[in-house]
Amino acid sequence: MSHVSRPNTRALRGVRIGIIGTGTMGQALLRGLLAEGVSRRALRAADANPRTRRAVERRFRLPVAADACAVARRSDLVILAVKPQQFPEVVPPLARHLTRPHTRRGVGARRPLIVSIAAGITLRWLQSRLPGVPLVRVMPNLPATVGCGFAAVAAGRAATRHHRRLVRALFGAVGTVVELPERHLDAVTAVSGSGPAYVLYLAQIWEEAARALGLPRAVASDAVRRTLEGSVRLWLASGESAHALIAKVASKGGTTEAALRVLARRRISAQFAQALRAAARRSKQLSYK
């Protein structure tokens, strides 16, 4: 049974966290963890790109290593935040270190916990290359960069309840978290991973339509942004379903009803469902088995 939550990061106290790959999501996690009070002394990071290393060091006042293995050796929890196509290059050197017993007492006493946030890298693929290592796969999304992310967590066989709690706390620093069986992650990728693009695509065509009605560019953009923001806040605050709130806006015979009738005739709901199925299907096709 899944449960959506925003866990408390106190579970991470005393845990040494290593982030390999400090691109958009790696930096989002650093920002969120620091904002939640995680000590800089508990954080370590690695990135292969010298320019990125320098930028992250300036931004977060945190040393960033070039050697991913060195970071992994000194961490209890290792986040693999590199691109999916980099995994075949990054994982084998790490495996030589991660599969050795650690002597430090605590959460990483036997093996560090490995957390992958790469789309399409399955637990099966990781387990075949990191035997005996506790693994958790996470599908986050871009709003994590502003602390409003949605992340789905799927745990591998060797991951304990404590490991899962650590990962929920980790991603709770940048949004809300749901734990699901891995078979659901292609759907999560289609719904929330790709989801910000759907919202922004709607915003783009909404702005264009507003300008076609004669509104100045700045007014059209601000009207759409504020309406989107206000609608989401209303939805979250009310606790009501989207259907119930639509009914409150769309009075019988009014302007909203006229617009919704056009969308219904165009079968927008069916086309949107088809789009999500295409995204989920593509996610499955791109997976590393």
- Helix content range: 40-55%
Number of helices: 12
* Arithmetic mean of pLDDT: 93
Proportion of residues in β-strands: 5-15%
Overall radius of gyration: 22 Å
CATH class type of the largest domain: Alpha Beta
Count of extended strands: 9
What is the CATH topology classification name of the largest domain?
Answer: Rossmann fold
Number of domains: 2
SSE succession = EEHEHEHEHEHEEHEHHHHHH
> Under the CATH scheme, which architecture of the largest domain would be assigned?
3-Layer(aba) Sandwich
Q: Major sheet: order of its strands? A: 1-9-8-7-6-5-2-3-4
Distance from N terminus to C terminus (CA atoms, Å) equals 25 Å
CATH superfamily of the largest domain: NAD(P)-binding Rossmann-like Domain
**Spans of 5+ residues with little confidence (pLDDT < 50)?**
102-109
The profile of the biggest β sheet is: 9 strands, mixed
Question: Can you put this structure into words, describing what you see?
Answer:
The protein is α/β, with parallel strands linked by helices and 289 residues long. The chain folds into 2 domains: 4-181, Rossmann fold; 195-285, ProC C-terminal domain-like fold. The protein has 12 helices and 9 strands. It has helices spanning 24-35, 50-60, 68-73, 87-98, 123-129, 161-172, 185-193, 195-212, 217-238, 242-249, 255-265, 268-285; strands at residues 4-5, 17-20, 43-46, 64-65, 77-80, 113-116, 135-139, 149-155, 175-179.
